[in-house]
Amino acid sequence: MKLFKLTAVAAAVLGSSVAMAQDVVVVDNTQAANDVVVVTEAPVQQTGTNVLDSGKGFFNQAVNPAAVSAEIGTLGYGANIAWGINETTELTAGWNGFSDDGTKDLDASDSWINWGKALGDGYGSFKGDMKYDADFSNPYLGVNLRPWANNFTIGTGILVPDNKLEARLTTDNANGADVKINGTNYTVDNAANGGYVEAKVENRNKLAPYLTVGYRPNINQNWGLFGELGAAYMGKMDATVKSNGVTGENGETNADFEKAARDDIQKDDVWYPIVKAGVTYRF
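Structure tokens predicted for Outer membrane protein G1b (283 residues):
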């Protein structure tokens, strides 16, 4: 009779496991006078079903984002996807970047090369041409917070920067062009005599934290706009400099200039400005 009781228990447990949501047969330990098995019914907590439901909810949230956005700014053009965690928090994943090449005319009043902060302020007096090839790529992961549950946002996260700039500076000026580095004046001979400066600059750090503040007004139930201001800490840059026909005011050679120019680029930490605007569609 004990074997019968154990078999009944095993069958009841197996049946409840397969059914996932059926009643469980529980054997009463009380021995009846005629050795009859007395059973009672008890509800099963549907733990397996709850786990599956939770997993399904997470999967649905992952494949059904809260919003998608297109954006353009100082990091280039791009897009992002946002997943809503709650009413005031969104996770974002996106990419910004661009590729461009061409020739830029530089003169004493041109601030383009200084705005980029790639080669340094010492080239601000350079008069000539800069042939450049820029390739920027900045994937990112972040969080957008609405601390007051309104349109004002704070964004923070991590960029994965892969930005490269190659530049070749030449001049047709008969007297050459001037570059000043660490207080020393250098003269780059004109292109007809083979004078030039070549520089290649790229990110050293593989990760770059960023912080922005923004405003995200809604146009209607689905569409909205946004703007953001902030900065990313890019860290130091790696540089390679080559030159020809460069002389310093104290007799410095091409090799002296190349070392000074490379060290000048690599010595400073770069805080890259983030300015962007875009449009958002909410599901």
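The chain has a mean pLDDT of 81.
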